[in-house]
Design a protein that fits this description.
This is Prevent-host-death protein. By secondary structure, this protein is α+β, with helices and mostly antiparallel strands. The protein has 3 helices and 3 strands. The protein is elongated, with a radius of gyration of 20 Å.
């Protein structure tokens, strides 16, 4: 993970956003001691093209059909 102080973040914002779009997490450092205060993370990985689990938490609902049945062994053997 890369880290940038606020001043450098301001001047290189477009470049830093490119890093984030490519899956990199970036910390923002603030103050005289340059302590980490925030993190910029990608919404989804460009490599997989899929969103991370949890991004829709509270915004969606999952239901299973009444006839849906799967044993624990069937679940563990899925590839």
């Amino acid at each position: 993970m890369k880290a940038f102080p606020v001043g450098e973040l301001k001047t290189k914002f477009s470049n830093i956003l490119e890093l984030v779009q490519n899956g990199e997490e970036v910390e923002i450092l603030y103050g005289k001691n340059k302590k980490p205060v925030a993190k910029i993370v990608p919404l989804y990985s460009k490599k997989s093209g899929k969103r991370k689990l949890g991004i829709l938490k509270g915004k969606s609902k999952i239901t299973f059909a009444k006839n849906f049945k799967m044993t624990e062994d069937e679940l563990l053997n899925l590839k």
